[in-house]
Amino acid sequence: MAVWPSYEPLTGIWHMQELAVGKTGNPKWRDRQIPSAGGGIKMDWYRDADTALAARLELNARYEADLKVSPIDEEVRHSLQLKASKSLQAKERLQSEEALMLADARRRKASVPAPSAAELKLTARAEPLRDALADALAEFPYVTGVRVGELHERLAMAKSYSGIWDLLADGSLHKRGATLIERSKIASGFDLNPTEHWGEVKAKIRTILLPRANQLLQLSSVRRLLDEALARGEKALVCNGVVFWYEPDGNVGWQVKSTDTVKSGEGTTLWAEGTIRFRKSRPVGNPPIH
């Protein structure tokens, strides 16, 4: 039905995922496999983002066209089209949100200078990597964990609370460590710990980015509106120009997004299709957030 490239920090490559209908009839994301030159199958992966993006656009256009002419019931076709569209929107929303968070993290730490190799504090066993560490910190000098050397070497270093850099465990980088290093580029920009639950870290960042809007969540009148919406199975509620979005993963719960722009992007929720019910707005204590 659709595809989406997922970045793998450990290897630096992009794995293509596909949205497919299982035996239950519900679409689920899974790794995409394609025929190999030897007659078997292999993972569909790409070395750079541009190639992965081009493949995503081409494949999604093809799948969308195939679904339009598929000999299935029209109601089923329409349902699958909506599910594919919503699944892609969810992927795009998360990607756009993290891109925004990364941009703001770098803005907040723009005054942090890149350290020279000479001023770095290292343990004795990490000393041979002094120059490599300085190179790794040139772009993100505020992070608490980095990978050093060439991509295939998979070496990682972390900074202690006392500011001393050391190799991680045996020095080798694993999938979990590579993911945390990528997350540090965002979390450390907000002085947060990238090793904590990622959903909760991002919830804290949203609170930082939307301080006044998130204060609405503390009002009993707003909580009542949200509780009523959730009881009806609604996970998005618009009130006075503010979008309240329910995030079930990681016990994050309700979060706030502002709808103060006409463009599709961060802070805007688009309803491509479906019924929008308007309710008389109750006072919520604060004016719309802009």
Q: Share of helix among residues? A: 25-40%
SS elements, strand count: 12
- Kindly report how far apart the N and C termini lie: 37 Å
Order of helices and strands: EEEEEEHHHEEEHHHHEEE
What's the mean pLDDT score? 81
- Give the count of helical stretches: 7
Low-confidence stretches: 259-276, 278-290
Give the overall form.
flat
Q: Determine Rg (CA atoms, Å).
A: 23 Å
Biggest beta sheet attributes? 4 strands, antiparallel
Tell me the β content: 15-25%
The computed structural class is: alpha+beta
Kindly describe this structure:
The chain is built from 7 helices and 12 strands. The radius of gyration is 23 Å and the shape is flat. The chain starts with a strand and ends in a 32-residue tail after the last strand. Strands 1, 2, 3 and 6 form a 4-stranded antiparallel sheet that branches. It is α+β, with helices and mostly antiparallel strands and 290 residues long. Mean pLDDT is 81; it is low at 259-276 and 278-290.
